[in-house]
């Protein structure tokens, strides 16, 4: 059965299932009227009590405007709904988190920001999804401080799993993070956030490339997010294309478009090179071609190749941990804790296995604990 037939048969992938019995009049009076009025009055006295008596404590809204869906681009709210439903079942199946798809027919930043603020009382967290750059940066930044975590998964989920995979890959090839050169293709939501984490971890040299070429300080036509990266990377002001960026690079990270990297470009990289070609559905270069050209380790975003570098390893555990301690945001320390937890799920990394399996249900639990501990540690620092 193909995916379209599968979705037509099931009419989507989600259903609402009651946690409680509704068989007797007493059941009805407890779950709804008149008993529920007592609960509402209890919460009205202190809205924080909603965490204790409603599903808010385990509820995440998966919110999109449909402007950057998978590799399909700006296809709109309705067309994004099947993807958001898929995201919701991954939350539930892998992290035990109740997630609800919210697709919005607007691509105006202010409207989106106000909408999320106004629906936030019903949720313990907000997962922003498939929103195009640079709007995604503006929206996520504006929603910090609303009292619950707001996390754009295409940015940080991708960046976290890439960093975990890279940490293990560098162990395999015995290279020092602070001495490597990394070329990143794609300066949208994922590329900018990957660059930020690479720089935070002290990468030796970072070359970020967008559709117009290599980003460098002083290049015209860049938005503020690209300029921010340009200010602290590519200090030699290398110019040119991805082909130029790959010469002598130890690592290639692709979050751009398929088929843009050739075997000859991989040959120009350093020995024992690492290639993460993550464009979907077609990688920047196919794994067999990259390996034939000399790449030591290859990963993609696809499930039909080894080393699937997928943010499904991140978001269920991130939110499970954040909800467990009622975190009000996802801090950088929490993101870095998730990196370590995912990397640690592979005890003895090899070239063929640098990340855990995407459906490994133990990963979310380990990420959850690490993220919760990082939040509590952060609170302790504030108190001191």
Provide a descriptive summary of the structure in words.
The chain has helices at residues 3-10, 25-31, 36-45, 50-53, 77-95, 109-119, 135-142, 153-173, 189-200, 224-230, 242-246, 263-267, 287-292, 315-324, 332-344, 362-383; strands spanning 59-64, 98-103, 125-128, 150-152, 181-185, 205-210, 213-214, 251-254, 273-277, 295-300. It is built from 16 helices and ten strands. With 384 residues, the protein is α/β, with parallel strands linked by helices. It is globular. Helix 8 packs across helix 15, helix 14 (315-324) packs across helix 16 and helix 15 packs antiparallel against helix 16. Helices cover 44% and strands 12% of the residues. The strands form two sheets. A six-stranded mixed sheet has the order 7-6-5-8-9-10. A four-stranded parallel sheet has the order 2-1-3-4, with helices on both faces. It has two domains: 3-148, Rossmann fold; 153-384, NAD(P)-binding Rossmann-like Domain (Rossmann fold, 3-Layer(aba) Sandwich).
């Amino acid at each position: 059965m193909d995916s379209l037939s599968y979705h037509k048969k099931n009419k989507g992938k989600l259903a609402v299932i009651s946690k409680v019995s509704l068989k007797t009049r007493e059941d009805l009076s407890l779950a709804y009227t008149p008993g529920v009025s007592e609960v509402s009055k209890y919460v009205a006295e202190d809205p924080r009590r909603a965490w204790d008596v409603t599903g808010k404590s385990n509820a995440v809204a998966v919110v999109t405007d449909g402007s950057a869906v998978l590799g399909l681009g700006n296809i709109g709210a309705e067309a994004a709904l099947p993807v958001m439903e898929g995201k919701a079942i991954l939350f539930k199946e892998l992290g035990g988190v109740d997630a609800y798809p919210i697709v919005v027919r607007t691509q105006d930043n202010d409207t989106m920001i106000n909408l999320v603020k106004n629906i936030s009382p019903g949720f313990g967290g907000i997962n922003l999804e498939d929103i195009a750059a640079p709007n995604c940066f503006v929206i996520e930044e504006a929603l910090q401080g609303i009292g619950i975590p707001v996390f754009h998964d295409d940015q940080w989920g991708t960046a976290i799993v890439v960093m975990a995979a890279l940490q293990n890959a560098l162990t395999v090839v015995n290279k020092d993070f602070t001495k490597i050169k990394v070329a990143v293709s794609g300066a949208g939501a994922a590329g900018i956030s990957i660059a930020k984490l690479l720089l935070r971890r002290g990468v030796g040299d970072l070359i970020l490339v967008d559709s117009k070429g290599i980003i460098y300080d002083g290049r015209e036509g860049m938005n503020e997010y690209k300029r921010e990266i340009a200010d602290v990377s590519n200090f030699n002001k290398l110019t040119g294309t991805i082909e130029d960026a790959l010469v002598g690079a130890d690592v290639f990270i692709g979050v751009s478009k398929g088929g843009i990297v050739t075997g000859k470009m991989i040959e120009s990289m350093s020995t024992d090179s690492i290639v993460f070609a993550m464009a979907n559905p077609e990688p920047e270069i196919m794994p067999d071609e990259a390996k034939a050209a000399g790449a030591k380790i290859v990963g993609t975003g696809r499930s039909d190749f080894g080393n699937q570098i997928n943010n499904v390893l991140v978001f269920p555990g991130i939110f499970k941990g954040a909800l467990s301690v009622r975190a009000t945001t996802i801090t950088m320390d929490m993101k870095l804790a998730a990196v370590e937890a995912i990397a640690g799920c592979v005890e003895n990394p090899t070239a063929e296995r640098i990340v855990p399996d995407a459906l490994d249900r133990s990963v979310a639990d380990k990420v959850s604990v690490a993220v919760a501990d990082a939040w509590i540690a952060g609170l302790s620092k504030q108190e001191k």
